[in-house]
Structures are given as C-alpha cells and as structure tokens.
C-alpha cells in the first residue's frame, strides 16, 4: 500500500497535490470535487424525475385503458339492450309472444339453444313470422331472464328452471351461476313458487330398478341434454 503521507494529486483533477491523508479535507473545498458532486446530484435528480415521469405515464395509460374498457363494456351493454333488427328474433313460446336478442339466446355457444338459433333464418316460422317453441312460457321466460341479466326471478321454481336449462344444455352454466356445482347430485326442492303450489315427488333413494330419482324425466346427478 502507498504511504498515506506521500503526496498525491487531487482525484478530481483540479491540479492540487498533497498528502494522501489530507485529500479528503481538500475535497471539501475543491472546486472540481464540488462540481462533480453537483453533477452527480443533478444526474440523480434527473433520474428521479424520469422515473416519476415514466410512472405518471404508466398510470395515465392504465387510466386510459380502464376508461376504454369501461366505455367498451357500456357500449356492448347498450348494443345488447338495443340490438339491430337483424339480431332480434320474435318468438311464440307456448302461445306467449316475446322478442329476444340473438346474442342472449346464443350466450352459451355450446348449448342446444345457441345451436338452434345460430341458423335462425332456417327455422320454421308461423304466419305472423314468429318462431314457435312448444315450451312452458313462464319457465322459458325465466330462462331468458337469467340469460339476459344473470338474475333469477324471486318467484321462479328452481326445479322447473333447472329442468328447462338441462333440456337446452345450460344446466352446468346455471348451476355455476347459482353457486351449486353439486346441485344435480343432491335432490332438493326449493322454496319460492310460481304457482304457489305443489312440490314434485322426489326421493333421495334409488328406486327398485336401481335408477336415480328423477324430476320431470330428468335424472338427478347426471347431465343430460334434451327434454323429458
């Protein structure tokens, strides 16, 4: 190691020469050292300012992206509420007339309902131009309400709605919406009735033939597509 008392030049290049152990003190008054420290501080300030600018830019971009996402969602929602005439089908459900957007009917592409209405121009129509479906109008309307809004009416008989959804291949989606993934394997009768009436006869035990209990021809505990 070099002797601390030996002369050495100022590391900042100001031209001063002195003992090594005094160079630190010299750095406090050295113009070149002061200039170097000012430059370092300026670079740090610039780096912080650039970092803040980039962060503000990132936040502004995130806000803009969120605004665009919400705007697009709102526009899509408005389009669903007010679709063009070509995206609306007039239905006759068991004698009750209703008009439904094709996007609602085809919300779940894997369902039989979506398959049926994906070729709506090929469907048979009545004299009045409506597509007739021989289904219970109250239950089908409850199904459409769920497809349209994700909500289930307070007066809806869930066992009837599930049977209708099963026929159209929509039962898994309905059960997921209800938060009842195991609904098919747990026979139950829900409260809240359309007609204030009667409960279907449902047994939790297999019958004498070893078959699972059924409601309106639908085996509980098994996914099926089609109406009983």
Descriptors for this entry?
rod-shaped; 43% helix; 3-stranded mixed beta sheet; alpha+beta; 228 residues
Molecular structure report:
The protein has 228 residues and is an alpha+beta fold. 43% of the residues lie in helices and 11% in strands. The strands form 3 sheets. The protein has a 3-stranded mixed β-sheet with strand order 4-3-5. It has a two-stranded antiparallel sheet with strand order 1-2. Strands 6-7 form a two-stranded antiparallel ribbon. Strand 3 and strand 4 (96-101) form a beta hairpin. It is rod-shaped and about 110 Å long. It starts with 6 loop residues before the first strand and ends in a 9-residue tail after the last strand.
Question: How are the secondary structure elements laid out?
Answer:
Layout lengths: L6 E3 L7 E3 L3 H5 L3 H51 L6 E6 L2 E6 H4 L6 H6 L13 E3 L3 H13 L8 H10 L3 H8 L35 E2 L2 E2 L9
Parallel strand pairs: 3-5
Antiparallel strand pairs: 1-2, 3-4, 6-7
Q: Per the principal axes of the C-alpha atoms, what is the gross shape?
A: rod-shaped
Quaternary status: single chain
Q: Give the DSSP E fraction (strand runs of 2 or more residues).
A: 5-15%
What is the count of DSSP helices, taking H or I runs of 4+ residues? 7
Q: Residue-averaged pLDDT, rounded? A: 79
Through-space gap between termini:
97 Å
* Spatial order of the strands forming the largest sheet: 4-3-5
In total, the number of strands is 7
- Biggest sheet architecture: 3 strands, mixed
- Give the structural class: alpha+beta
* Unreliably modeled segments: 181-185, 187-223
The proportion of residues forming helix, as a percent range, comes to 40-55%
């Amino acid at each position: 190691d070099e002797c601390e008392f030996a002369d050495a030049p100022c590391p900042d290049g100001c031209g001063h020469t002195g003992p090594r152990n005094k160079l630190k003190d010299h750095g406090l008054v050295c113009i070149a050292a002061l200039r170097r420290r000012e430059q370092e501080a300026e670079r740090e300030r610039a780096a912080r300012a650039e970092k803040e600018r980039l962060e503000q830019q990132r936040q502004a971009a995130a806000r803009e992206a969120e605004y665009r996402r919400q705007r697009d969602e709102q526009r899509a929602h408005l389009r669903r509420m007010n679709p063009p005439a070509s995206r609306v089908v007039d239905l006759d459900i068991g004698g009750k007339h209703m008009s439904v957007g094709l996007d609602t009917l085809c919300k779940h592409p894997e369902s039989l309902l979506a398959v049926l209405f994906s070729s709506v121009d090929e469907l048979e129509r009545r004299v009045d131009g409506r597509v007739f479906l021989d289904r219970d109008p109250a239950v089908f309307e409850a199904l459409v309400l769920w497809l349209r809004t994700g909500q289930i009416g307070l007066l809806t008989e869930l066992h009837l709605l599930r049977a209708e959804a099963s026929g159209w291949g929509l039962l898994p989606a309905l059960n997921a919406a209800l938060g009842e993934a195991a609904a098919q394997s747990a026979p139950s009768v829900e409260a809240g009735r359309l007609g204030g009436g009667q409960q279907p006869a449902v047994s939790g035990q297999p019958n004498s033939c070893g078959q699972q209990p059924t409601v309106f021809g639908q085996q509980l505990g098994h996914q099926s597509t089609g109406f009983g």
